[in-house]
Amino acid sequence: MQPLISIITPNYNCEKFIEATIQSVRNQSYRNWEWYIIDDGSKDKSIEIIESYCKLDSRIKLFKSAINQGPAKCRNKGIELAKGNFMTFIDSDDIWLPEFLKTSLSFVKKSEGFVFASYHRYDENLQPKYRDFIVPLKVTYADILKTNSISCLTAFINIEKLGKLYMPNVRYRQDMGLWLSYLKKIPYAIGNQTPLAIYRIRENSHSRNKLNLLKHQWQFYRKVEKLSVFKSAYYFVLWMIYGFIKYAN
User: Fold this and answer.
1) What CATH number is given to the structural domain containing 25?
2) Residues 43-61, mean pLDDT to the nearest whole number
3) Element at 118 (helix H, strand E)
4) I need a surface site. Which of 65, 153, 190, 235 has the fewest CB within 10 A?
5) What range does the domain containing 136 cover?
């Protein structure tokens, strides 16, 4: 029997994009998956859209929160619910190419249990905005502290082998916190340099406020990873340099 893959998605007021995301998951060539969509107190019509697809496809399961809790708690709820041998994540505005699950499952068998992939970077209207982000062949714990090459939309983890770990309850960098937790258990994660997804860059998203992100990046080093001031400063400088390179078109 084919292994079960658990997919986890937080949703918050994403009616403009969620249908394309759902279609990209349903169009996967690999079919044995379950999908937990955790709504974070949306006030728009995204819940109605998701519910309509739940009726069409029993693999899609919606869980609703009455209040906004943030993406970390939503993803952690999905991790808690996951019944699969593997887990992966996709945000409610991103898109997988049809072979993402099949390719990632094949790739993870050659790894320590954690793989990720390259992706296209498009604007809100799915027009190319930056050149494709091509990931390294492998990354270690120290590599991720310098620059997070693992996108939430392509991370693929063997939880049967590595167990379930959870994201730190912080507003930013919660996915990075999870990757680092796994990379404390294994020597490295393996990157697939073939793009398998589309990351939609939204101009009004939190991640576009670079000054705000720098503040949270420093706090992440000090409060989440509990690095010394010296080590935090070292990785912080590298983070800024790599960040500039990442978005230099």
Assistant:
1) 3.90.550.10
2) 97
3) strand 114-122
4) 65
5) 5-201
